[in-house]
Amino acid sequence: xxxxNLLLFLIAVVLVATAxxxxxxxxxxxxxxxxxxxxxxxESEEYVNSVYAGLQAQGLYGQYLPCLGELPSDNTWxxxxxxxxxxxxxxxxxxxxxxxGILSQNWKDAYVAIxxxxxxxNRIGTIAYQSDSTKTARMGAMKFIRALLxxxxxxxxxxxxxxxxxxxxxxTYFGQGRTPKDSVYAQIINDxxxxxxxxxxxxxxxxxxRRSAAQSLLGKVYLTRGQYQDAVNVLQDVVSSGQHSLxxxxxxxxxxxxxxxxxxxxxxxxxxxxxxxxxGSAMQQQFSPSGFESGAKGHNLPNLSLYKLYGAGDTRxxxxxxxxxxxxxxxxxxxxxxxxxxxxxxxxxxxRYPDVLLMLAEAYHELGNAGSALAALNQxxxxxxxxxxxxxxxxxxxxxxxxxxxxxxxxxxHRWFDLxxxxxxxxxxxxxxxxxxxxxxxxxxxxxxxxxxxQVNTDPAIRQNEGY
Length: 468
Fold this sequence. Notes:
The structure is a single chain. By secondary structure, this protein is mostly helical. The protein has a domain at about 1-205: Serine Threonine Protein Phosphatase 5, Tetratricopeptide repeat, CATH 1.25.40. The chain has 18 helices and six strands. The protein has helices at about 25-35, 40-55, 60, 65-70, 85-95, 100-125, 130-155, 180-200, 210-225, 230-240, 285, 305, 355-365, 370-385, 395-410, 415-420, 425-435, 455-460, and strands at about 75, 265-270, 300, 320-325, 330, 350. The strands form three sheets. A two-stranded antiparallel sheet has the order 1-3. Strands 2-6 form a two-stranded antiparallel sheet. Strand 4 and strand 5 form a beta hairpin. The relative contact order is 0.13.
């Protein structure tokens, strides 16, 4: 059975981190290799590292998740659709088709990483570790990463297949179909609750998951589910932990010489000049205006209407987003390696302290606690050099919190998911298209991406989303 018939998720990931195969008929052999490999603490640690490495994949935080999180929104646009088969342009113009390569790669890479996490969780219990706390932390990290991957999947596709056990034979899951998203969310919440109890207060290695990462993500899950008091409780734990704080100015947040600072809760690690240039990020190449950098692709660029939302006194203007000499906005949160544009050293920040503060503001606002919402909101505004926002009018305050999320988190893949969470994606986008004289109108079917066609073709039990 060839690669085209790989089951939706678990494509040849029963391998060790450095091995791969395209033949499912090799499963007994690769299982034997993995059984022989996964026997000591050092080997377990290598496989744990492979789970983290999976997040670097192109379909995830290497390129496509930021596109999925922003291109459908009013934050960004695709300048040069032709140089990637029009895939990013489809997201931008709501013309996405099931054969879109971004979706296929995103689905595949997510389930590959999920399988790797499942392998660790299935096998680590029998491995002797010198420190029980280290072993426990690794289990928590795997649950955090699995929860993160599933959270992204349900945001993009809705119902998705739920697999929480190591798979040695993909045919086991053939015909399972898509698990209702409520059940997927229940698993996400369970994983994150476990992770909070298992992860250390401080990461024991650079880029490792820590307790606040699981708490922050759980807060976002609760916010998405409308469990506002639960969101406040867990997000307030992040604030009260004393582990995170805002940098004194925006230019310190993403500086290459200041990565993994106190503002960064969890980031996917990239490094230039390592392993023959294979550990770097291509984000700057992909998300720079055409002609601005040699080989720049012009995808997922902040649009001019967003750039104009930054006021004259906003210190984020020119630091987070700037314009070329031709007046084309671009994101400045990623830095290239000038010798090799696809080997940049910038980490991709998944969770950041201002995100926590603004989620707190949103949750407090939904609970009718304007005072606490303003206190959280104004911490972010103050760091940006802005005066305190004072209105307690529910409509105005809600709009201001949403605006601050746009201005603070642009380029980090949040805006479209924010609109989905708030339930106003259709109205906001149709109003924006009208304001820009763009002849596009969307409806509720556009809120989910189509399931990749190769998954539907492989397993008839995988039903396509309505409208595609």
